[in-house]
Specification:
9-stranded mixed beta sheet; Glyco_trans_20; alpha/beta; 16 helices; binds adenosine-5'-diphosphate; about 475 residues; Trehalose-6-phosphate synthase; single chain; Rossmann fold; alpha,alpha-trehalose-phosphate synthase (UDP-forming) activity; 17 strands; trehalose-phosphatase activity; binds 6-O-phosphono-alpha-D-glucopyranose; about 20% strand; 6-stranded parallel beta sheet
């Protein structure tokens, strides 16, 4: 493994998590979430280095972890102690920033010791990037856990080109300014040459903050800071659509999709939800709307079956524990009232699944229900569309997911509005097949042209264009 790289990805997580098996031996499991889904195919193409945390705790006082190869990727693990996991990851990243950036759906908490660890861990990531990046390398920093890294890295390595992409929403000034360390975060991000967001609204929120907080003079897609131009733009992220097409055509996956429908009792319609078990995803109201339609006698559980996959996530954070209890109570109540032996009304799975099984579920489902209260993009919605090769199937999609700006032919819904959700379910359950196909084909055409490689290329091209204007080299 070469010690320097001209393309470096810096993200809180590596694409794989270290897991200790029952016999005490270690193995690797794919990390959860959309960031890994999107960035992994790009890394394979660029043959770069990936700096991130392996998802487990390193004892206090242990030295740095050695780099390793996994499935053809060069990985540089960052060690986090139990205390850093509690304060930097579960604390500041996931109890301060995550809820705040998602409309403060649950209240954000701020603690000075969490912030101190956030700064220290960001510095560790920046030091590692400075060490690994070759002269003039392109270093691409990702997501809310690492917002201070661009500035820290620029101080260490002014020669490298720094891109930053936020995978989650970016809130308006009115919410962002709650953060006691708001200036440091904005200054941290401005260390990059290019700051990318999922939507134009998020980019505009950030530009406005540079004016409100730092008294800078932002232009439409850039801002001047310390004699440098920082570009600020939206780059809606996507998926490796071709990889999904390959899986959809696999005879094993097709057979598995048929088996799933058979096991469900061959219902007329199968509805599907696939999410991390997160309070931003709107799983509660999605299920309540389904329950009320059963209560009202508008649907029956023989006719319409729901499958909800809820991937375990951030399980030591209190709000996530409470959410799990709430969702499992709701599923239990619905099944207690409407299920029969061997045929629950809601089939609930709380574990990570292999990609093949997810694709079989996408293939089997007539209706995909994606109803987050707020979501940067939502790749599940795009994955479903990518899997519907024959143009069948329907997507119910929240207006508050970034994906709704692109998948305009979906059945858009306000996830807070239970009556609206119920009406939308009924509309889709009774929709005309020709209308469904027209919508799905339009979304598929869009996705074919806007896959994850297109996303990465637009980002890199934007960096190159800026660099050429400044008379420096290219990011390729
Ligand atoms: P988020 O990034 O908030 O988790 P996204 O919808 O953007 O939401 O991305 C979720 C990713 O995780 C998708 O690529 C999806 O296929 C994957 N995923 C979701 N649930 C599971 C599961 N149970 N097992 C494996 N992968 C999953
Ligand atoms: C979202 C975030 C990612 C995060 C993922 C899984 O996709 O944008 O940064 O990695 O969720 O969450 P976790 O806390 O398990 O890394």
């Amino acid at each position: 493994m070469s010690s320097k790289s001209d393309f470096v990805v810096v993200a809180n997580r590596l694409p794989v998590d270290r897991v200790v098996d029952a016999d005490g031996s270690g193995s690797w499991r794919r990390s959860p979430g959309g960031l890994v889904t999107a960035v992994e195919p790009l890394m394979r193409k660029r043959d770069g280095a990936w700096i991130g945390w392996a998802g487990d705790a390193t004892p206090e006082g242990d030295g740095p972890l050695p780099p390793f190869e996994n499935d053809g990727l060069s990985l540089y693990p960052i060690a986090l102690t139990e205390n850093e996991i509690a304060w930097y990851y579960e604390g500041f990243s996931n109890t301060s920033l995550w809820p705040l950036y998602h409309d403060a759906i649950v209240p954000a908490e701020y603690h000075r010791e969490w912030w101190t660890k956030y700064v220290a861990v960001n510095q560790r990531f920046a030091d590692a990037a400075a060490e690994i990046a070759d002269t003039d390398a392109f270093v691409w920093v990702h997501d809310y856990q690492l917002q201070l890294v661009p500035k820290m890295l620029r101080e260490l390595r002014p020669d490298v080109r720094i891109g930053y992409f936020l995978h989650i929403p970016f809130p308006p000034t009115e919410l962002f300014t709650q953060i006691p360390w708001r200036r440091q975060i904005v200054e941290g991000l401005l260390g990059a040459d290019l700051v990318g967001f999922q939507t134009p609204g998020a980019a505009a929120n950030f530009l406005r903050l540079t004016r409100d907080l730092l008294q800078l003079k932002p232009a439409r897609q850039s801002v001047e800071v310390d004699g440098r131009t920082v570009r600020v733009r939206a780059f809606p992220i996507s998926i490796d659509a071709e990889a999904f097409t390959d899986l959809v055509n696999s005879p094993d996956v097709i057979a598995r999709a048929e088996q799933i429908r058979h096991d469900l009792g061959n219902p007329r319609r199968m509805m599907l939800g696939i999410d991390r078990l997160d309070y931003t995803k709107g799983i509660d109201k999605r299920l309540e709307a389904f329950e009320e339609l059963l209560d009202d006698g508008k649907i029956s559980s023989e006719d319409v079956v729901m499958v909800q996959v809820a991937t375990p996530s951030r399980e030591r954070v209190e709000q996530y524990r409470m959410l799990r209890e709430q969702i499992e109570r709701t599923v239990g109540r619905i099944n207690g009232t409407y299920g029969s032996v061997g045929n629950p009304a809601v089939n609930y799975i709380h574990r990570s699944l292999p990609r093949e099984e997810l694709v079989a579920l996408y293939l089997a489902a007539d209706i995909m229900v994606v109803t987050p209260y707020r979501d940067g993009m939502n790749l599940v919605a795009k994955e479903y569309v990518a899997c519907r090769q024959d143009g069948t199937g329907a997507l119910v999609l929240s207006e508050f997911a970034g994906a709704s700006l692109e998948l305009k032919q979906a059945f858009l819904v306000n996830p807070y509005d239970i009556e609206g959700l119920k009406a939308k379910y009924l509309e889709v359950l009774n929709a005309d097949e020709a209308d469904l196909k027209k919508r799905m084909r339009a979304m598929r055409r869009y996705l074919q042209r806007h896959d994850v490689m297109h996303w990465a290329q637009t980002f890199v091209d934007d960096m190159d264009a800026a660099r050429e204007r400044d008379g420096r080299g290219s990011a390729r």
